[in-house]
Design brief:
Shape: flat
Mean pLDDT: 89
Number of domains: 1
Helix content: 10-25%
Low-confidence stretches: none
Distance between the termini: 17 Å
Number of helices: 2
Strand content: 25-35%
Order of helices and strands: EHEEHE
CATH class: Alpha Beta
CATH architecture: 2-Layer Sandwich
Structural class: alpha+beta
């Protein structure tokens, strides 16, 4: 099992708007059957952590290319375009999760 986290650095003052767009984007992936339910959260402001940073994470049994042929299409949306206008950078992180069956 893997935890996959997408990290978005956004322009100052745009964290909440970015979180709303990222949540909508994540839900489209979930509704299309491309990933498990997503969680969206941010740091800074009232909690410690890097400011203007929004995270989207989900779990997956395996890591697969989003460009694979059997991947269901999302169809058109302008959420990504709106996000790109307030996003400064993004990257993705992969973590292998501990499960009891991995214990020796």
């Amino acid at each position: 099992m893997y935890l996959i986290r997408r990290v978005y650095k956004v322009k100052p003052g745009q964290t909440k708007k970015a979180a709303e767009l990222i949540y909508k984007i994540g839900n489209r992936y979930t509704e299309a059957g491309q990933r498990d339910q997503v969680r969206v959260y941010w740091s800074g402001y009232t909690v410690p952590g890097p400011p203007n940073t929004v995270y989207m994470e989900w779990t997956s049994e395996k890591i697969e290319s989003p460009y694979r042929k059997d991947n269901p299409s999302l169809g058109p949306s302008d959420f990504g375009k709106q996000l790109s206008e307030i996003q400064e950078e993004s990257y993705i992180e992969f973590f292998e999760m501990f499960t009891p069956e991995k214990s020796s």
